[in-house]
Amino acid sequence: MRRAAGQVRAASGGIYAVDFGAVLLLAEAMGALTPLLVEVLPEIEPIIVRDYARDRD
Questions:
Q1: What is the rounded CA–CA span in Å between residue 21 and residue 51?
Q2: Domain residues of the chain, as ranges?
Q3: Count of Cβ atoms closer than 10 Å to residue 36 Cβ
Q4: List of E strands, the chain
Q5: CA 16 to chain centroid
Q6: 15-54 tens-digit pLDDT
């Protein structure tokens, strides 16, 4: 996920989501787009958003 670190949706309150479209396009360009990534990304999104919030505090 480090290469996709900037692929988030943010507002004045901070990061609130991962930009799935951008992450999946990046994965495709890297030859890493797999059904597993497509399945797991929604499950790990809250973890990523929480981690960004923790780093901000």
A1: 20
A2: 2-56
A3: 9
A4: 8-11, 14-18
A5: 10
A6: 899 999 999 999 999 999 999 999 999 999 999 899 888 8
